[in-house]
């Protein structure tokens, strides 16, 4: 079996200049496929609120939802690191609550690490979770749980002041002990600068090619989620069309009695069935 991808693998990848791959996963069978394909890490993102549960944003996702999906993903994975996203309000109330919720993602969800959004505002929580021996990934730039504060999904860090704040937060998070930072929707040159300043790896999403790794929402990357496609998404497949055409073929065949055919049917001896008439 291939060697597991761990926190040390993140550090080694940055040191050796090897890019880190990350994708989201929310269920057992997809996680199993992505792991088999060799992805380094799987993020059970709170994006599941939109992609799996059909909410408008991530704010309604609960810690129970996250644990449920983390469990399914962990069961499908042999090599990739599983990261559980801490949902809205699971780390905003008290430090004690935050450690308990992070611990639940590990203990009940089977995740290897947790991710949370924010910088200086959540630094006490980050320190406490790290002290509890739980590996943490930070998340800066466009942090979707702050959607109502940002007023929409917009690129962050374009002004000098906003860019400085992201850099300061990144340094703070590194000092607090996070082992990587997701940079979402920030200009490429800012992400490059931050990646050069940090000793820990950056994982970009809409942050250009200079980050130490990349993450995408799997359903976006496979062309399955079509409600909204951000500019930074590249579709590596068009499963949307495949699923619709396969479903149409199934409906047609079953209506015409072409399915199930002999090969998909169980049989009984004629003598036995005749006795039952
Ligand atoms: O929830 C999520 O999927 C994320 C990624 C977009 C980084 O946080």
TrEMBL record:
<protein>
    <recommendedName>
        <fullName>3-methyl-2-oxobutanoate hydroxymethyltransferase</fullName>
        <ecNumber>2.1.2.11</ecNumber>
    </recommendedName>
</protein>
<dbReference type="InterPro" id="IPR003700">
    <property type="entry name" value="Pantoate_hydroxy_MeTrfase"/>
</dbReference>
<dbReference type="InterPro" id="IPR015813">
    <property type="entry name" value="Pyrv/PenolPyrv_kinase-like_dom"/>
</dbReference>
<dbReference type="Pfam" id="PF02548">
    <property type="entry name" value="Pantoate_transf"/>
</dbReference>
<feature type="binding site">
    <location>
        <position position="117"/>
    </location>
    <ligand>
        <name>Mg(2+)</name>
    </ligand>
</feature>
<dbReference type="GO" id="GO:0003864">
    <property type="term" value="F:3-methyl-2-oxobutanoate hydroxymethyltransferase activity"/>
</dbReference>
<keyword id="KW-0479">Metal-binding</keyword>
<keyword id="KW-0489">Methyltransferase</keyword>
<keyword id="KW-0963">Cytoplasm</keyword>
<feature type="binding site">
    <location>
        <position position="85"/>
    </location>
    <ligand>
        <name>Mg(2+)</name>
    </ligand>
</feature>
<feature type="active site" description="Proton acceptor">
    <location>
        <position position="184"/>
    </location>
</feature>
<comment type="subunit">
    <text>Homodecamer; pentamer of dimers.</text>
</comment>
<dbReference type="InterPro" id="IPR040442">
    <property type="entry name" value="Pyrv_kinase-like_dom_sf"/>
</dbReference>
<keyword id="KW-0566">Pantothenate biosynthesis</keyword>
<comment type="pathway">
    <text>Cofactor biosynthesis; (R)-pantothenate biosynthesis; (R)-pantoate from 3-methyl-2-oxobutanoate: step 1/2.</text>
</comment>
<dbReference type="GO" id="GO:0005737">
    <property type="term" value="C:cytoplasm"/>
</dbReference>
<feature type="binding site">
    <location>
        <position position="85"/>
    </location>
    <ligand>
        <name>3-methyl-2-oxobutanoate</name>
    </ligand>
</feature>
<dbReference type="GO" id="GO:0032259">
    <property type="term" value="P:methylation"/>
</dbReference>
<feature type="binding site">
    <location>
        <position position="46"/>
    </location>
    <ligand>
        <name>Mg(2+)</name>
    </ligand>
</feature>
<dbReference type="GO" id="GO:0000287">
    <property type="term" value="F:magnesium ion binding"/>
</dbReference>
<comment type="similarity">
    <text>Belongs to the PanB family.</text>
</comment>
<dbReference type="GO" id="GO:0008168">
    <property type="term" value="F:methyltransferase activity"/>
</dbReference>
<feature type="binding site">
    <location>
        <begin position="46"/>
        <end position="47"/>
    </location>
    <ligand>
        <name>3-methyl-2-oxobutanoate</name>
    </ligand>
</feature>
<keyword id="KW-0808">Transferase</keyword>
<dbReference type="GO" id="GO:0015940">
    <property type="term" value="P:pantothenate biosynthetic process"/>
</dbReference>
<feature type="binding site">
    <location>
        <position position="115"/>
    </location>
    <ligand>
        <name>3-methyl-2-oxobutanoate</name>
    </ligand>
</feature>
<comment type="function">
    <text>Catalyzes the reversible reaction in which hydroxymethyl group from 5,10-methylenetetrahydrofolate is transferred onto alpha-ketoisovalerate to form ketopantoate.</text>
</comment>
<keyword id="KW-0460">Magnesium</keyword>
């Amino acid at each position: 079996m291939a060697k597991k991808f761990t926190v040390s693998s993140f550090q080694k990848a940055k040191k050796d200049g090897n890019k880190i791959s990350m994708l989201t996963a929310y269920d057992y069978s997809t996680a199993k496929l992505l792991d088999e394909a060799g992805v380094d890490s799987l993020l059970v993102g709170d994006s599941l609120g939109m992609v799996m549960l059909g909410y408008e944003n991530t704010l309604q996702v609960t810690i129970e939802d996250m644990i449920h999906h983390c469990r399914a993903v962990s069961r499908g994975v042999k090599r990739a690191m599983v990261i559980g996203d801490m949902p809205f309000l699971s780390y905003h109330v008290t430090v004690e609550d935050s450690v308990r919720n992070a611990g639940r993602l590990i203990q009940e969800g089977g995740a290897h690490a947790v991710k949370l959004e924010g910088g200086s505002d959540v630094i006490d929580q980050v320190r406490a979770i790290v002290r509890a021996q739980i590996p943490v990934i930070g998340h800066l730039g466009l942090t979707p749980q702050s959607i109502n504060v940002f007023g929409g999904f917009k690129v962050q860090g374009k002004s000098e002041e906003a860019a400085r704040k992201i850099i300061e937060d990144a340094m703070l998070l590194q000092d607090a002990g996070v082992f990587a930072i997701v940079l979402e929707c920030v200009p490429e040159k800012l992400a490059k600068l931050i990646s050069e300043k940090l000793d820990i790896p950056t994982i970009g999403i809409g942050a250009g090619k200079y980050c130490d790794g990349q993450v995408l929402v799997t359903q976006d990357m496979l062309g399955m989620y079509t409600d909204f496609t951000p500019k930074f998404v590249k579709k590596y497949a068009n499963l949307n069309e495949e699923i619709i055409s396969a479903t149409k073929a199934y409906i047609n065949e079953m209506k015409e009695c072409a399915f199930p055919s002999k090969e998909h049917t169980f049989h009984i001896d004629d003598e036995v069935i005749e006795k039952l008439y």
